[in-house]
TrEMBL record:
It holds the Pfam family HxlR. One of its GO terms (molecular function) is DNA binding. This is Transcriptional regulator, HxlR family. InterPro entries: HTH_HxlR (IPR002577), SCP2_sterol-bd_dom_sf (IPR036527), WH-like_DNA-bd_sf (IPR036388), WH_DNA-bd_sf (IPR036390). Residues 8-107 form the HTH hxlR-type domain. Keywords: DNA-binding, Transcription, Transcription regulation. It comes from the Bacteria. It comes from Actinacidiphila rubida.
Length: 223
């Protein structure tokens, strides 16, 4: 591990997470939970397989991630964040918020777009506050043709989970380009404006406006 050799908490933190790809690996594990090596490769287009292996070894040595054997039928070791690694959620949230300004122009021709990145940004940035014991499920369908992907977010007062696949009983379903989905979930666009631009919104529980404006006072009960 490279070091700045500075007795400063910022420098010490960057000694651990400042290398390229480290925080994006954290992003992947925050978004979808424990994953296989191949899952991480899919979520990190552009990383060389030897570099990913090296970063995981370094992060494991630093106590950010750990490997464990998944029960059948997975049959392959998985990687997950440790408690220390999950403490980086606030760092990723701050970066997501800070980077919003550079998202307004949309993806470039060479940019990869993956729906679970949009979902994670929404889960981190939604300013709404749910009632105690409540839960809101937001389904996302983004892309087209073979690139179409479905996933859903489970939002609760004390955290979130993101799962691949649809959610027929979702409180809100957003269908359309990832740029529009992300703009709504981050509060950059109102749902009404996004609909005018082509987003399909099925808000059967009428909770989306409150979530994105921070005025939500109720949600579907958990369970």
């Amino acid at each position: 591990m490279k070091s700045y050799h500075q007795y400063c908490s910022v420098a010490r933190a960057l000694d651990v997470v400042g290398d390229r790809w480290v925080l994006l690996i954290v992003r992947e594990l925050l978004a979808l939970g424990p994953g296989r090596y191949s899952d991480l490769r899919r979520g990190l287009p552009g990383i060389a397989t030897n570099l990913l292996a090296d970063r995981l070894r370094t992060m494991e040595a630093a106590g950010l991630v750990e490997r464990f054997d998944a029960p059948p039928p997975v049959g392959t070791p998985l990687v997950r964040l440790t408690a220390r690694g999950r403490e980086l959620e606030d760092v990723v949230r701050a970066l997501a918020r800070w980077g919003l300004e550079d998202m307004a122009s949309g993806p470039g021709a060479a940019d990869t777009v993956q729906p679970h990145w949009t979902a994670l940004a929404g889960a981190l940035l939604l300013p709404g506050r749910l009632a105690p014991g409540a839960r809101v499920v937001v389904a996302i369908e983004s892309g087209s043709g073979s690139g179409n992907e479905r996933l859903h977010m489970i939002l609760e007062p004390d955290g979130f989970a993101i799962r691949r696949g649809g959610a027929p009983a979702a409180d809100v379903t957003l269908t359309g380009p990832a740029m529009l989905v992300g703009a709504v979930l981050s509060g950059a666009l109102t749902p009404e404006r996004a609909v005018e631009m082509g987003l399909e919104v099925d808000d059967r529980a009428q909770v989306l406006p409150g979530l994105v404006t921070g005025t939500a006072t109720a949600a579907a009960p958990a369970g």
